[in-house]
């Protein structure tokens, strides 16, 4: 390690980009350990400006927000379907399944973005190997995590309600596995097309791939979950259908593993990369428990609409920042060795948001987008579902404050976690994004529920004091 550090110091002194790591754990790079490589990034990250980053991020971010807003409207509609009313644990499934876009698709997009920015997908043969092995990996992870998410929802439901229904168990498991598999396949293919297209256009895919995953991920996942669960609910007497579906998808795992094996680095992720996505799923499940406990209460009216938005926006922004820092380190350093200018200080809120360094600049841009973005999304939701929302002015203020707190915490944690992960010679693309998006789901759901509760208490107090006009008004 000392030799690598000394070499890194010499490379920085001469202004070189350095040597890219061999066969990174993310599988995007497949380079022999001894081979010296001069990376050829199409997008020079150090040359990006505030304007260029803002322009590249804003359009996908707005597009993502529109998708998240529509996802909130959909969830508000789906919660009244018979299957969601009868099987309450389906609502517990929503955050972990929707969060899979952070655990799987955003991680995939980040890995492919790193490969694109370092020129590793320019060769057609290498491109095919990278893409096929990554997609197969995502499908295996989706099947396993979908099954575990259903078990977690059942366990949390059994603890809170002290009941366990075998028919509902089969419905939850089959719905979760099928939803995770189909959503991962659709979004995975979309991420591949976006990254390759951005590479050809000379646009940094780190800035656009994850927002687009967020824009369509919730819509696709919620729609598939509602349709699949309704099908099994209508055929709940035919218990063998749910069992057969689970067996079929589990049987696909060996075939997918064969595809993954063509890339040893990806195979290493399949062997050792389960902890981040499983822990992220567990964290999101607690957010789902909060959602299922509050969604039907009168004082939490509108919880279903805003949950996908606040969770999705937070996860979207932190995934962009994590992907950018990861690509930056892949280009300028080697795993286990932080660049000298990052060694000089431990991340703190000031260094994360207030310096002239490129990653600090992007963090400021992303943070400044929170309030305007949520105001736009809030207005759109009010136009579509105004009758379903609280008309409290105080709620708007609390909601914006909660979203700002959520994103500030996530962006700071992104800086800390990426540095720690890189220092341990692990790939941040595969190890940080799942944790951060899962934490974003839990923070978003918890803070949102707190906003509704505080707003309800304020309105109740104002009514008792005879001043309801202080907190009420048009949405």
What's the helix and strand layout?
Layout: H1 2-13, H2 50-78, H3 82-86, H4 89-98, H5 100-117, H6 124-161, H7 166-201, H8 205-234, H9 239-260, H10 264-272, H11 274-294, H12 303-332, H13 340-343, H14 349-353, H15 358-368, H16 370-385, H17 393-423, H18 428-431, H19 433-464
Helix pairs in contact: 2-8, 2-12, 2-15, 2-16, 4-6, 4-7, 4-8, 4-11, 5-6, 5-7, 5-8, 5-12, 5-19, 6-7, 6-9, 6-10, 6-11, 7-8, 7-9, 8-12, 11-19, 12-15, 12-16, 12-17, 12-19, 16-17, 17-19
Can you give a write-up of this model?
This protein is mainly α. It has one domain. It contains 19 helices and no strands. Helix 5 packs antiparallel against helix 6, helix 6 runs antiparallel to helix 9 and helix 12 packs parallel to helix 17. The longest helix is centred in the first third of the chain and has 38 residues. 54% of the residues are buried. The N terminus is likely disordered.
Which tags fit this structure?
single chain, 475 residues, mainly alpha, 0% strand, disordered N terminus
The stretches of 5 or more residues where confidence is low (pLDDT under 50) are: 1-45
The rough form would be described as: globular
Domain count, please report it: 1
What is the arithmetic mean of pLDDT?
A: 78
Q: How many helix segments?
A: 19
Q: What would a concise description of this structure say?
A:
The chain is mainly α and 475 residues long. The protein contains 19 helices and no strands.
């Amino acid at each position: 390690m000392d030799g690598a550090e000394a070499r890194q110091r010499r490379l920085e002194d001469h202004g070189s980009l350095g040597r890219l790591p061999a066969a990174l754990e993310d599988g995007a790079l497949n380079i022999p350990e001894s081979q010296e490589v001069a990376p050829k990034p199409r997008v020079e990250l150090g040359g990006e400006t505030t304007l260029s980053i803002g322009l590249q991020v804003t359009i996908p971010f707005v597009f993502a927000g529109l998708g998240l807003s529509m996802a909130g409207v959909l969830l508000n509609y789906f919660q009244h379907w018979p299957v969601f009313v009868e099987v309450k644990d389906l609502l517990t499934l929503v955050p972990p399944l929707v969060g899979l876009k952070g655990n799987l698709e955003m991680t995939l997009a980040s890995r492919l973005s790193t490969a694109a920015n370092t020129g590793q997908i320019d060769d057609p043969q290498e491109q095919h190997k990278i893409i096929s092995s990554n997609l197969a990996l995502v499908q295996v992870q989706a099947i396993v995590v979908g099954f575990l998410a259903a078990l977690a929802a059942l366990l949390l439901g059994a603890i809170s309600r002290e009941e366990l229904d075998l028919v509902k168990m089969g419905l939850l498991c089959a719905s979760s596995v099928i939803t995770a598999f189909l959503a991962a396949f659709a979004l995975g293919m979309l991420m591949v097309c976006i990254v390759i297209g951005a590479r050809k256009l000379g646009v940094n895919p780190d800035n656009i791939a994850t927002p687009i995953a967020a824009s369509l991920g919730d819509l696709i996942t919620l729609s598939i979950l509602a349709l699949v669960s309704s099908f099994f609910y209508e055929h709940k007497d035919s218990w063998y259908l749910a069992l057969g579906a689970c067996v079929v998808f589990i049987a696909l795992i060996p075939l997918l593993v064969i595809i993954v094996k063509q890339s040893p680095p990806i195979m290493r992720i399949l062997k050792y990369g389960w902890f981040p996505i499983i822990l992220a799923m567990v964290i999101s499940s607690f957010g789902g428990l909060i959602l299922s406990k509050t969604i039907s209460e009168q004082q939490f009216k509108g919880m279903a609409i805003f949950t996908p938005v606040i969770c999705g926006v937070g996860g979207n922004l932190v995934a962009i920042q994590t992907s950018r820092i990861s690509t930056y380190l892949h280009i300028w350093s080697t795993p286990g060795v932080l660049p000298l200018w990052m060694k000089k200080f431990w991340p703190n809120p000031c260094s994360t948001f207030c310096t002239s360094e490129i990653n600090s600049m992007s963090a400021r841009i992303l943070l400044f987008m929170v309030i305007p973005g949520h105001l736009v999304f809030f207005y759109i939701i009010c136009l579509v579902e105004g009758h379903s929302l609280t008309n409290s002015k105080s709620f708007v203020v609390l909601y914006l404050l909660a979203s700002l707190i959520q994103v500030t915490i996530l962006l700071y944690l992104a800086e800390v976690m990426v540095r720690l992960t890189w220092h341990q010679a692990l790939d941040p693309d595969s190890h940080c994004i799942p944790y951060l998006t899962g934490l974003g789901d839990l923070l978003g759901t918890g803070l949102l529920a707190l906003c509704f509760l505080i707003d309800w208490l304020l309105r109740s107090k104002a009514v008792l004091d005879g001043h309801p006009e202080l907190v009420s008004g048009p949405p």
